[in-house]
Write a structure and sequence with these properties.
The protein is mostly helical. Helix content is about 65%, strand content about 5%. A hairpin with a 4-residue loop joins strand 3 (about 115-120) and strand 4. Bound molecules: zinc ion (2 copies).
């Protein structure tokens, strides 16, 4: 029994209870986050910034906005990963502090009724929403707000990059000569890269940027919309998954029930209506039986026998 509890308690590679996203073991999606975020910053400061319009005010406003969105993303991500969303009962050596606790046999203690045990972090999390692999931490009551703020900040950050990429791409294709003259005006772009860059390379990079950020923003809109729906319905992601699984099971059970009833009805119908094959075969049976009884039958009857085989 103890071995069973122990095997269910931990996933392979989870040595101890984890407090947050900055503790090992790392997740490969977390590595993607750590690569993607700097990539978005590099994309702006090493590429888009040099293509911006000559207006100093526009450059300052756009860059300040970008920095604000980037800093808020970083701050909220750091907070989300730092806050330990574990149930209070795991942290305190006290008697149950909840009115209606439930017992977690993995944590071996009473926990909040909304707590769920995360096998990745090996702990119960109050109002468990989900385990975020991109941040490598659980999202629960204590850090759900910060998680939503990350989604909003990244959405604003990538939307700015997308909007700029689209505007610059359209401009570069609409009037390539004046666009390239503008970015070559004070030679900053070429100076930064160390060598001249071709028109096609700039345009290709802008097209790739548009598709990259388009996918990113679409994913964030879907994620944000999903959580707005959850907030509206007063559910967590976990609740929604359980609800959907139950709904799918109920639908499948209903479909099987209907199929079973249909088959039963078919069998009843077949029993009520005489079988046409039996009617057709009746004379043949008579012929065979007659032949077996040694009676001389007509030629037409004898020819019928092999016809049934
Ligand atoms: Zn637990
Ligand atoms: Zn977790």
């Amino acid at each position: 029994m103890e071995d069973l509890a122990e095997s269910k308690r931990k996933l392979p590679g989870i040595p101890t209870r984890r407090k947050g996203g900055f503790e090992q073991p790392w997740d490969y999606l977390q590595m993607c986050t750590w690569v993607l975020f700097p990539l978005i910053l590099v994309h702006y400061f090493a590429f888009l910034y040099f293509l911006l319009w000559d207006s100093l005010a526009a450059k300052v406003v756009l860059t300040v906005l970008f920095i604000i969105f980037a800093m808020s993303t970083l701050a909220f991500a750091a907070t989300t990963c730092s806050v330990d969303p574990a149930d209070e009962m795991l942290c305190k050596e006290v008697q149950p502090i909840y009115n209606d606790p439930i017992y977690c046999y993995l944590c071996e203690t009473d926990v909040h009724p909304t707590s769920k045990h995360c096998r990745y972090c090996d702990k119960c999390v109050v109002k468990f929403d989900h385990h975020c692999k991109w941040l490598n931490t659980c999202i629960g009551e204590k850090n759900y707000f910060y998680f939503l703020m990350i989604v909003l900040s990244v959405f604003l950050l990538t939307t700015e990059s997308l909007a700029l990429s689209i505007a610059l791409m359209v401009e570069s294709f609409a009037d390539t000569d004046s666009f390239m003259d503008r970015i070559r005006h004070d030679n900053r772009f070429h100076h930064f890269l160390g060598s001249p860059i071709s028109d096609n390379a700039v345009q290709s990079l802008l097209v790739v940027s548009v598709f990259f950020f388009l996918g990113f923003v679409a994913m964030l809109i879907q994620l944000g919309g999903f959580h707005i729906m959850l907030l509206y319905r007063g559910m967590t992601t976990y609740d929604f998954i359980i609800y959907e699984q139950k709904r799918q099971r109920d639908l499948e059970a209903q479909r099987m029930q209907e199929e079973f009833q249909r088959q039963q009805q078919q069998q009843k119908d077949q029993q009520q209506v005489p079988d046409n094959d039996d009617i057709e075969e009746a004379p043949v049976e008579t012929v065979e039986d007659a032949g077996a009884g040694g009676e001389i039958v007509g030629v037409s009857s004898i020819e019928l026998t092999p016809a049934r085989m």
